[in-house]
Amino acid sequence: MRVLAIDPEPSSFRGGQEKSLFDILVGLKGRGHDIILAYVTPGDYLDQYEEHGVRTIQIHTTKNEGFQLKSFYRLFLSTLKLRSLAKADVIYINEIVDLPIAALLTLMRPSLRLVCHFRLPPPEIPLFKNRKNVIGIAIGQVNQFIVANNNMLNAYIGAGIPKEKLSVIPNCFLMDKLKFRKSEKNDGLKVIGFLGRLAEPKGLHHLIDALAILNEGPKYHLLVGGMPKRKEHFEYERHIKEKIDKLGLNGKVEFVGHVSNTASFFSRINLLVFPSIVNESFGRVMVESIMADTPVIARKVGATSEILDDPEEKWIFSTTQELVDKIKYYFEVPGSYNLNNKQIFMEENFSISKVLPKIETVLKK
């Protein structure tokens, strides 16, 4: 099978969806398929793709920026380039904003299949039902969509995607690369971790509030991994640091910036908190943390209890006080967190060897 994948910026700095795409494309290449990646802006994954035999092609754009003539011209040039250089059986896009170039390619070559992997929750605006925008016009060109769980299945059905076009396939992981057995810390510090984009929807401000309550005990420390990306993210980072200063938490919070080696990050913490306040489609960092021998406490959003195999929600919280109570309880009784069972569950459900054949089937269908 010949697969043309599209990722505007194949970079670890963008987040989990680029990492997920990388694992899938390299996995498909390892299963004997011919993989081509079209990109716009170079990123740090490019060299790794080429090392694994994935051919890469740089284009001008994947979408139209409004209805400007120059934007459509760049899109048309990019489409012609891929039509000429990328012979494929199926186009695989990792987010809906790349639909314009994929739809144009299928119009030029009707035999092409088009598969879209939804990595984010559906937009709040009725994008798919509105035939006055490019996405709404082109959405019918997609043969099949992939979502990570039943929570996202229902969300996208509600957003206007036909149920018969949706396949539920969880995110997949190279489990052997995630495993990291760490020794217990002996310095007495209770180190909590946050790993994700420094943006308001990720909920770091709620974790800061919890730390302020926990600050009655002098041994709590917070390690923050991640970077802002857009203008509003940098404003949020400034707000967070002002909040830390106002609450008297200076010296208790450490910002480490972009984390390329998650094992190194997890080796420094006792517990990861996933405080996202939005309907997360998955949350890769939870699986990465558990497999690196680091327990996770997560907010009740999306499918967090399903991913953590916690139907009784013992380690799921809804309020700041619940988070505080569960952090305290974990450090008082760390043996109550059954990491081994969760690791077995994740290997059985999210291992790339189990999930990749399902994605392969959708691409071939």
* Strands ordered across the widest β-sheet: 3-2-1-4-5-6-7
Q: H/E series, N to C? A: EHEHEHEHEHEHEHEHEHEHEHEHEHHH
Report the structural category: alpha/beta
Mean pLDDT: 91
Strand content: 15-25%
- Unreliable stretches covering 5 or more consecutive residues: none
Shape: globular
Q: Report on the biggest sheet.
A: 7 strands, parallel
Range of helix content = 40-55%
Quote the distance from N terminus to C terminus.
Answer: 11 Å
Can you count the beta strands?
13
Output the number of helix runs.
15
Query: Rg to the nearest angstrom?
Result: 21 Å
Task: Give a quick precis of the structure.
With 365 residues, the chain is an alpha/beta fold. 41% of the residues lie in helices and 16% in strands. It has helices at residues 16-30, 45-51, 69-85, 99-108, 134-138, 150-158, 175-178, 204-214, 231-246, 262-266, 284-291, 304-307, 320-332, 339-350, 352-364, and strands spanning 2-6, 34-39, 55-58, 90-93, 113-117, 144-147, 166-168, 190-195, 220-225, 253-257, 271-274, 296-299, 316-317.
